[in-house]
Design a protein that fits this description.
228 residues, alpha/beta, Rossmann fold, Arc Repressor Mutant, subunit A, 2 domains, 5-stranded parallel sheet, 4-stranded antiparallel sheet, 8 helices, 12 strands, 22% strand, elongated
């Protein structure tokens, strides 16, 4: 089986070396660079199966790299994991808004790195459910056509907005959704939804779902995701 190719863009040579060694040991073919300009050239020459992108880079920073890749039809679908320090939450949010699939905050363990890489690649290989397709995750069943949610055999009554938020998250388990992305996804409803209102909706949604409410994870400073 052909090895999946991973490109790491990290300005710290020591961290780059550690990530490269970790992923090669897990069976990936790994290339690396410390500069954003070089990453654009490498990606366009031979698009990788996954890009791991540091935000703080000399020259062209990580956000600009991601912006250019997402603007190009040939590279916009490349799965991307952002790597950044915890103090750069606003940049992480910006990266997710540009289409990054996940993020890692420094420092992180080799095991976490491998798990996130596997998860992102697995999600990309698995087709996203159609909008009207029944979703079954753990003991939770979501039936969009019937606007019906079951936890085990218990029917859960949700408002229209609560149902939309649950459906958005559950269609892509493991994906991080910022509050703005959630608002955009339910935009156009008969009443306004703000980013802070999303937090309130999540609280109510978790309460109604009971034990299944634990499947909705808070990503501190960023937004929410549905547990894989």
């Amino acid at each position: 089986m052909k090895k999946k190719r991973v490109l790491i863009v990290e300005d710290d040579p020591d961290i780059l070396g550690l990530m490269k060694h970790t992923l090669e040991r897990d069976g990936y073919a790994v290339a690396g660079t410390t500069r954003g300009e070089d990453s654009l050239r490498l990606v366009r020459h031979e698009p990788p199966n996954l890009l791991i992108l540091d935000l703080m880079l000399p020259g062209i920073d990580g956000l600009e790299v991601l912006r250019e890749l997402r603007a190009d039809a040939k590279t916009r679908q490349i799965p991307t994991i952002i790597v950044s320090a915890k103090s750069e939450e606003s940049d992480i949010v910006s990266g997710l808004e540009l289409g990054a699939d996940d993020y890692l905050t420094k420092p992180f363990s080799p095991r976490v790195l491998v798990a996130r890489v596997r998860a992102v690649l697995r999600r990309k290989e698995k087709p996203e459910p159609a909008g009207d397709e029944v979703i079954r995750i753990h003991d939770l069943v979501i039936h969009p056509g019937r606007h019906e949610v079951l936890v085990g055999k218990r029917a859960v009554e949700l408002t229209f907005t609560e149902f939309r938020i649950l459906h958005i998250l559950a269609r892509r388990p493991g994906w991080v959704f910022t509050r703005d992305r959630i608002v955009d996804a339910i935009h156009g409803e008969p009443y306004p939804v703000t980013d802070r209102a999303v937090d309130v909706q999540i609280v109510g949604l978790r309460k109604k779902l009971g034990r299944a409410g634990d499947y909705i994870e808070t990503v501190r400073g960023v937004g929410y995701r549905f547990k894989e």
